[in-house]
Amino acid sequence: TPPIVHRDIKPENILVLSRSPFHIKLSDFGLAKAGSYLETRCGTLVYTAPEIAQYCRPNSAGSPRYTCAVDIWSLGVVVFQ
């Protein structure tokens, strides 16, 4: 079964239901897609992994090829902030 890639992890899509113990849910799966390798440019640019963001520049050719690791990058950016 291919993994589901959320592709738009950002603070607005992380719901904290309780803090003791932490109970967190992820919302807004509108851009989510199942697949081992994806090529569509989407998501919020500030939280997007570099392998996708580099194709969002003007005059960039081709399309990105990425895995579910982009969600880990996005979550790391959210936690760092």
From TrEMBL:
<dbReference type="Pfam" id="PF00069">
    <property type="entry name" value="Pkinase"/>
</dbReference>
<dbReference type="InterPro" id="IPR011009">
    <property type="entry name" value="Kinase-like_dom_sf"/>
</dbReference>
<dbReference type="GO" id="GO:0005524">
    <property type="term" value="F:ATP binding"/>
</dbReference>
<dbReference type="GO" id="GO:0005634">
    <property type="term" value="C:nucleus"/>
</dbReference>
<dbReference type="InterPro" id="IPR008271">
    <property type="entry name" value="Ser/Thr_kinase_AS"/>
</dbReference>
<feature type="domain" description="Protein kinase">
    <location>
        <begin position="1"/>
        <end position="81"/>
    </location>
</feature>
<protein>
    <submittedName>
        <fullName>Kinase-like protein</fullName>
    </submittedName>
</protein>
<keyword id="KW-0418">Kinase</keyword>
<dbReference type="InterPro" id="IPR000719">
    <property type="entry name" value="Prot_kinase_dom"/>
</dbReference>
<dbReference type="GO" id="GO:0051598">
    <property type="term" value="P:meiotic recombination checkpoint signaling"/>
</dbReference>
<dbReference type="GO" id="GO:0004674">
    <property type="term" value="F:protein serine/threonine kinase activity"/>
</dbReference>
<dbReference type="GO" id="GO:0005737">
    <property type="term" value="C:cytoplasm"/>
</dbReference>
<keyword id="KW-0808">Transferase</keyword>
